[in-house]
Amino acid sequence: MGKNKAVFVCKECGYESNRWLGKCPSCGAWNSFVEYNEKKKGKGNGGFKFDVSTPPTPLDKIDFKSVKRFETKIGEFDRVLGGGIVPGAVILIGGEPGIGKSTLLLQVSYKLAKMGSRVLYSTSEESLQQISLRANRLNAVSGDILLSSEYSVNKIIKYAEDVKPGVLIVDSIQTIYDEDTDAQQGSVTGIKACTSKLIRFAKATNTPVFVVGHVTKGGIVAGPKILEHMVDAVIYLEGDGNRGYRILRNAKNRYGSTDEIGLFEMHSDGLREVNDPTEIFLTRETESISGSVLTVTIEGSRPLLLEIQAIAAETKYGVPQRSVNGPEYKRVTTLIAVLEKRLHLFLGNQDIFLNVVGGLKIRDPGIDAAILMAIYSSYSSKVIRKDTVFIGEVGLGGELRAVEGMKRRADEAIRFGIKNIVIPYYIKENIESSKAKIMKCKNVSSIMEYLRDV
Ligand SMILES: Nc1ncnc2c1ncn2[C@@H]1O[C@H](COP(=O)(O)OP(=O)(O)OP(=O)(O)O)[C@@H](O)[C@H]1O
Ligand SMILES: [Mg+2]
Hints:
The protein is an alpha/beta fold. Helices cover about 25% and strands about 25% of the residues. The strands form 5 sheets. A 9-stranded mixed β-sheet has the order 6-5-7-8-4-9-10-11-12, with helices on both faces. A hairpin with a 2-residue loop joins strand 13 and strand 14 (about 300-315). The model is unreliable at about 220 (pLDDT under 50). The protein binds adenosine-5'-triphosphate and magnesium ion (MG). InterPro entries: AAA+_ATPase, DNA_repair_RadA, P-loop_NTPase, RecA_ATP-bd, Ribosomal_Su5_D2-typ_SF, Ribsml_uS5_D2-typ_fold_subgr, Rubredoxin_2. Belongs to the RecA family. RadA subfamily.
């Protein structure tokens, strides 16, 4: 009897090792290795017949023009996919439980059905009545959406072969299994096996497949991260559960940029597209308060006016706390060090809380100046007027540096009636406006001088 090859796989990044490791050498995660047993059952592969192998073909003989994306006409969704769905693509939709993955896919199904495409929606999580209830609530009932409740990947593919849908949706990958392996439902092996079958089906029949994967608050439950390597695109639905906003973000895309985000608002009749995104990221409060500062970031191709809020309060017990929601933690601690060193503020006895309104996760260095000003404003109780924005990256020497898209950022601020725009001194673009005062500052000290005058 041949020995089965057992390997261990990191749940976070998919790194494989032939022994169990406490810490992943690839991504550094602790206790993330699970056994991955590649043992096959003796029965063969259940009649699974999709074979995507092709003999070597000259590249210039391949007709790429016949690959046509199709739009769902949900603009925010198409944008994130890079302009629409590519036939044969396998797209993973991840997100925390209850964030609205099934809702979004049902709405997408309905749009596609209305345009004459047939959708096979295979669920292994809910009963057909539950989905029908949701579809009625969302006004997304159509005879061209075919529902099936199925746990076996082979059967799902069998149904898809019979129905020949324009799009196949599998909700969710963690709750289906492959009877050709011994793997348990939701285990790394099971998820890999099911996904690879779905991928082979997609490629062989040119059917786009959407696969739902759950992500929990504490990290990732056996699955999605490993799947990221296998599928063509990974989109995550994120959001601030309480406020009803949802952000669709592309983490990987073999057919387009990953910079775009889609914005939605959850209502009782489903996810609605947000057409003027900037409104989400501002508090409705028009009165200026200390610690609250505006900036403009760029997400994908879109400039967004954002509000950064900070509180600096004297530490009552032990070590000062730093709590950051939105920007990178390290970035904020670096900016705190810049405030201490360059502006001589003493923040070592201050708890600092920093928040981006709307819950957006931001990696853009262009908001540095605003983060710095928000902390400064709260610490010194100096109110910064709501008609002022700060744009620019802050260097360790306190210098203000230009970032990508300065003009587009300034234009967005002006569109929202901002009257004072603080930008770096050295910029390539020519930013001038009759509607706003443009203040060019070389470093954080010159921003302070400017603030003294207003
Ligand atoms: N009647 C309603 N009115 C408003 N919003 C609702 C209503 N019913 C459900 N929702 C919203 O829909 C969300 C659930 O959506 P959905 O079931 O699509 O999420 P999911 O990501 O698929 O969840 P799961 O992980 O459980 O599959 C709820 O968290 C809530 O925000
Ligand atoms: Mg669901």
